[in-house]
Model the fold of this input.
Amino acid sequence: MFHHRASIVRSFVAVALAVTTVHAAQAGRVSVAVAANFTAPMQKIAAAFEADTGHQAELSFGATGKFYAQITHGAPFQVLLSADDTTAARLEKEGKAVARTRFTYAIGTLVLWSAQPGYVDAQGAVLRTGDFKHLAIANPKLAPYGAAAAQVMDKLGVAGAVQPRLVQGENIAQTFQFVSTGNAQLGFVALSQVTADGKIRAGSAWQVPASLHDPIRQEAVLLSPGKDSAAAAALLTYLRSGKAQAILQSYGYSF
Amino acid sequence: MPFSQADLAAIGLTLRLAGTTMVLLLVLCTPLAWWLAHTSSRWRGPVSAVVALPLVLPPTVIGFYLLVTLGPSGPLGQFMQWLGLPTLPFTFWGLVVGSLIYSLPFAVQPLQHAFEAIGQRPLEAAATLGAGPIDRFFTVALPLARPGFITAAILSFAHTVGEFGVVLMLGGNIPGVTRVVSVQIYDHVEALEYAHAHWLAGGMVLFSFAVLLGLSLASRRSGTLVQ
Done:
């Protein structure tokens, strides 16, 4: 009797072990550091990724510069979706990212946006003529969308006139918050933050022509902690799939 | 030179913000703390709880609600506009309002405890000697509560210097207007300028240590005075 019970226990343990091993091989978790501007599309892509592959993506959103600091100090992120085309290369050079896994997953679109309908015109002339008190941009030192916004204002020759009215968000998410609460009458944000299904959700916007600033190339890279993760590799492949790219496009990114 | 021009501007601004907040808090909190120390009203509990809220709320919550309510479409923002005044976010006075709320318990609670410690007896004694209520407050209660005032002043000043989340949400990072030291440190770290960050951050540690050491010495000395 005792022997019988022990063998049952043994076989249970064996089955349980087998199940967990199979489970681990098939469906893994991948922890992803995601640039703030890519929050909305990435949530959608992650949901599709989980449904299609069974892997789970754990997303952390924030500023690329902060992620850089965290990753160089041992943060366990496996994949970085950055907001620029320098951070991933730097991590690769410093041995924190896996070589030759870097690629541009999205090219961002800058938009001048106001929560007020009819405030921003289709040519962005409001930058010259507007009676606004505050214009919000992301900190150009830290955020690629902020650097692009500064280039646009330089090119249009309004940088000097606008300077005293600038307020800066630490990242593009905070910049959006300043404008959406009406505290800044308008601001340069990411198109992805103000569109849904290819249309501006609320307020008024001018989609800034790409010729007015350097392209906002957003690079993804496999980080060292994700080197042997099947889920991480699958996510990077998935980002290049037709399904992911359709989601990207619906948020105003190109690739 | 370890500090850049921008760093010095941030330090100056931070001291101005903390000083303004401290003075206003001492003025505003004295009657509030006096009332809390002496009232038997049923509002005492709720008011104490509201005063203590900033101790437990994340600064981002305070900052976010201030941004929304002080903004042009928020109730306080609309009231300001109705008065013909500018809205407060992205201004120095906006930060002062945020700091008053953020540091409120650090001023109220030491004062309240000081007033409570005095008790009724010295005040009653003064009353029998013919002192009116205002006279009693200024010549008896205020001098006896001096340790409480010193603690309240130091803590509200230091706590405002250490403020970050509220300023970040409400300030807009404008040099010389809303870019305080903590935000400047954050910017240095984010931009990977760690050497600059170290100078300011190390300075902050030394400053905070000196303040708390001073507080401890001051409380010991005034403690012996009272005895």
Remarks:
- Chain A touches chain B through 23 residues (CB under 8 Å).
- The first strand of chain A starts at residue 29 and ends at 35.
- The two ends of chain A are 66 Å apart (CA to CA).
